[in-house]
Fold these 2 entries.
Entry 1:
Amino acid sequence: MANSKYEYVKSFEVEDRLLPCTWVVVRIDGRSFHRFADVHGFEKPNDINALNLMNECAKAVMEDLTDIVFAYGVSDEYSFVIQKASNLYKRRSSKLVSVIVSLFAASYVFNWHTHFPDKKLQYPPAFDGRAVCYPDDSILRDYLSWRQVDCHINNQYNTCLWSLIKAGKSKDCANSELKGTRADFKNEMLFTQFGINYNELPQLFRKGSYIYRKKVQNSTANGTQISRKSSFVVTIDHGDIIGDTFWKEHPYILGAEE
Amino acid sequence: MANSKYEYVKSFEVEDRLLPCTWVVVRIDGRSFHRFADVHGFEKPNDINALNLMNECAKAVMEDLTDIVFAYGVSDEYSFVIQKASNLYKRRSSKLVSVIVSLFAASYVFNWHTHFPDKKLQYPPAFDGRAVCYPDDSILRDYLSWRQVDCHINNQYNTCLWSLIKAGKSKDCANSELKGTRADFKNEMLFTQFGINYNELPQLFRKGSYIYRKKVQNSTANGTQISRKSSFVVTIDHGDIIGDTFWKEHPYILGAEE
Amino acid sequence: MANSKYEYVKSFEVEDRLLPCTWVVVRIDGRSFHRFADVHGFEKPNDINALNLMNECAKAVMEDLTDIVFAYGVSDEYSFVIQKASNLYKRRSSKLVSVIVSLFAASYVFNWHTHFPDKKLQYPPAFDGRAVCYPDDSILRDYLSWRQVDCHINNQYNTCLWSLIKAGKSKDCANSELKGTRADFKNEMLFTQFGINYNELPQLFRKGSYIYRKKVQNSTANGTQISRKSSFVVTIDHGDIIGDTFWKEHPYILGAEE
Amino acid sequence: MANSKYEYVKSFEVEDRLLPCTWVVVRIDGRSFHRFADVHGFEKPNDINALNLMNECAKAVMEDLTDIVFAYGVSDEYSFVIQKASNLYKRRSSKLVSVIVSLFAASYVFNWHTHFPDKKLQYPPAFDGRAVCYPDDSILRDYLSWRQVDCHINNQYNTCLWSLIKAGKSKDCANSELKGTRADFKNEMLFTQFGINYNELPQLFRKGSYIYRKKVQNSTANGTQISRKSSFVVTIDHGDIIGDTFWKEHPYILGAEE
């Protein structure tokens, strides 16, 4: 075969299989999204359309790749949790990352007009991605908590920052005013100066978004017999995922492989 | 800082830095593009609009990431050559692959309507990607030759296959007829049965496409003085890249880092 | 500093940190030990002195590296289990493997004369080694079971093989006679032809050796008061490690890090 | 086969193949050799017997593994250069490192009494090791230069340090006196205070040791005919390997694979 003379170059490919029986998290992040947000006039500190667009793209990824059992998103980042037992793409890191990130980016452009019907997309965005293994459920939960705590800290900070800016402060000035302040000081500032009760802001902003396959019961009546089957519906929601409540109510999410 | 309790999860990220001073090739491939081509009614064996769309996306990637010195594309795949000395994203494999593949995929959707003004994109495509290191110029050249030989073999085969199918054969039947045949047999078949001189088909089909930064001389007349400067223009072309001719005419492409 | 011009070469070192919070098993294997055994006239199928020498070396490794919680050895191989939470050598794979394997090999030569007082060591042996991560206790137990099942299968085979050879068969002939036979056939052959009750052979041969830190109670009488403290003593033993019994009796071995 | 139930654990082994067509350097380093040198009363700053023992072990490694084309040693470290085209152990990093480091360590104990006939080895030493790829000859040469410059800097410093200590200074005091001083100051100090001409010290101390396969011509007279053949003899030498001279005189060392 004519090809064989050059085919040795394939031997330079390095295997990048991820450790079996571990949770794989693929996290993607918008590249230069500060600029992207500016160019497209995103609302500050949170643009609800931009967040909904992110959520729709993540949902599309989950609907396509059924080994993803959970996803968590905030701002311009999204984390996808692939189940421990998955052998998708033989667990090759580059395959998993590239398929997810490209599907997400393509969906972003594809769905843009639904969320921004009056705004033209100026240029195609890019995202970076990486895959990380977590050996057990509790560490995976810590990973997700890490992202949600981050969401809270950033959102509280940005809510103050943009309140100050909208009230006339320069960005530098607003930043100095906030530097080193604690959570209770910021909440107090929002309430006293701007009449904002932080805890009443939408969960979408304060907690980010998560997506999971919700178990639903389907009852079918057939004469006098009622048969019940359960199915799973990809569902977007917002709320706390640090505490145990959510996970106890949906034990099948992490337990799926057992 | 409240975050610290969970931040230990960052330690599970594994470094994936590629070996310094080696050529890095990021190759991306359409995921399930057989189906994608069917759904969108791509012309067989080659859809010129689809190929031009691929080329436009690859050009956008090269214009964005200036450390890419060369790209070669065929069918639904593209290879991007990052220069040896590059320290882009600290040579982290997942960063390089994810940014390139997501930018490419987003561009594909973004530019779709230019190349298919009358066709609606049915769903966003995905691509997989990988990064491979090649330690020296001659092995890198062998890599590119490998892809171009592959292009030739596949295109010749597909040209025969689709000629037989268009002439009424079933796909299975056409495949059996071609199985195990040699290049000269196929050329003969194309000429005798279908009046096609294979070597006169467009280079775009037979050789694929390459993109490079073409050095151009700019002369500026300023009174009696003429000053010359050279600049580089991202250029798409088609032709042989296996022989030495192209590389001798453009020595600056691979020599850029020396 | 004069050194700096060349120090860039350090950047070619690739990080090889093993995933945190996973059991690390470093397995070492004698290199070309068939020849080594022949040259040194090892008893077949098992040389008790050679096995004891292996055990003493493994014990020395465990006494030196206190993050190793368990070791299992058979023939010319030994597996060392490093506890999940260990950060020894920052979990760098090459460091862990190289220190263990070199300490083992050096100990082998160092302790040779104790076990073979009348035999001169003809040349220094080498061992290869590798590190593998196991994400949870049950997979780690399966790893150890894998090695012990292997020990059993090989030992039963070799006991038959060498009985036949000692009875005058050629090696090839003995191998053909055993090819494809089942466990019960082999046991029967040993009993009927050679009067060997396989299950009464020493555990050292049938089960291999394991080493662990045995918890022992130390009572000290001080007048009328008796104070008890526990300490851990590196202990070599032989027996089943596939079933739960051993692990239930010594729950602190795998639970040590919790 | 009874084994199969557990054999899945093999899938947790991760491939660690080194990039083809690159120089592989395996560097090993004595573990806690400060203590080892103290316990065994090594001469300071250089113990000629200990250095010769290191060299003999490295030579044994090279004689065993013929894909090693060069080795460079200083103090308690040694670097082994495996030729670019080598496929030894399929270029698996852990195999290469473990076999080299264990053979070296075992040889150290094996050959101890030849170099220290009157000193008992108190305990077996260990070495750590790592493998690094270098894509071309000039970077490999820079690596070797890096080690030889390091040898020079350390040796000059230690020669001063131990001269001061032997003259009655405390170690701390001697270190402070040397801190931040330049090469010419140190040479001057050695000459003025201690009558030592640094450049006349043995090359073994100042330049370290290198080992290569020296090409030698063998002439055989057969009647009136003289036939010449060349063979390669593993040879230890000392001298500069930073400049071009050595490499020009022995072009076959790095060129061996072409």
Entry 2:
Amino acid sequence: MKISARNVLKGKVVEVTKGATTAHVRIDIGGTVVTASITNASVDDLKLEVGKQAYAVVKASDVMVAVD
Amino acid sequence: MKISARNVLKGKVVEVTKGATTAHVRIDIGGTVVTASITNASVDDLKLEVGKQAYAVVKASDVMVAVD
Amino acid sequence: MKISARNVLKGKVVEVTKGATTAHVRIDIGGTVVTASITNASVDDLKLEVGKQAYAVVKASDVMVAVD
Amino acid sequence: MKISARNVLKGKVVEVTKGATTAHVRIDIGGTVVTASITNASVDDLKLEVGKQAYAVVKASDVMVAVD
Amino acid sequence: MKISARNVLKGKVVEVTKGATTAHVRIDIGGTVVTASITNASVDDLKLEVGKQAYAVVKASDVMVAVD
Amino acid sequence: MKISARNVLKGKVVEVTKGATTAHVRIDIGGTVVTASITNASVDDLKLEVGKQAYAVVKASDVMVAVD
């Protein structure tokens, strides 16, 4: 499947924390760690676990820009 | 200002394309390029231009995860 | 690629309207038409055109619920 | 109230799962089930329960498109 | 229609700017002006124009918090 | 840090409710209360507590408009 999201960033899962319904997954993208907040169900479906290769996917309209 | 968004990724602006009301800004984050779709007004306010240091900011709930 | 987004709705493209930087794509999902606002670049990359089979993908945290 | 969100999809609630602060509500839209992640407070306010008619509401800028 | 979005802020439209496909609408909420980026089609459907009473609607998961 | 988000609304924290992984923070913006759903980790990092001055930050593309 190919998706319209402009940002598909390849990395490796470094942390998975499940909550009651929502999980936090951290992915290391070449040294930068990105945090995703997804459903517990998705964690199970994608069999996400530490060390697994994964992509952080972000729609361009969800990215903001900041400067110092 | 410090923001709750979990993802504040430091990089350098490599492209700015303005549309009628919406602009696309591309930021190089250590070799990975992230695309942001923001208002033209924001581009002006932040004086974004190629070569400028900037951050791509993404809320954790806007990050998805994908696997091959 | 398998994605964490809970909503991957199969349908057919019924309209593509490009703007200056942003395009609107309408997908018929079994009789219900869903509108997506994506970048022009994505339309080109995915070769989206009327009649093509496609999926509308939405993260669960981006879905609201309303009642009459 | 009429809303700007382009996608207001009529259906019926088929599942409500409350977590600590966040609930997952599943709505059947003519055979396609859409999952919404909303606050527990919203579930109470809207008196959402299985069998109730409801709408899944999604802003066009939150819809992505994918192809096989 | 009653919506799950936690933030339904009553105000008055103070500016409408249409682009190629995307419009910016500014709403004064008791002295604070909120900017919405919506489709041109929504502006037409809702007959939005300066002076009209309207609500800015935001899902709780789309609100970030910042401190100085 | 200056951010591209068009909406940076100054107010005061009036409620903080932590869940398993996700917290709800309510900020009074000149009489209007805005609810943010953010990670527990952000609440800790920003030392958010009732009475503290804070900003509700929302990207323009996440704001919808409604009329009666």
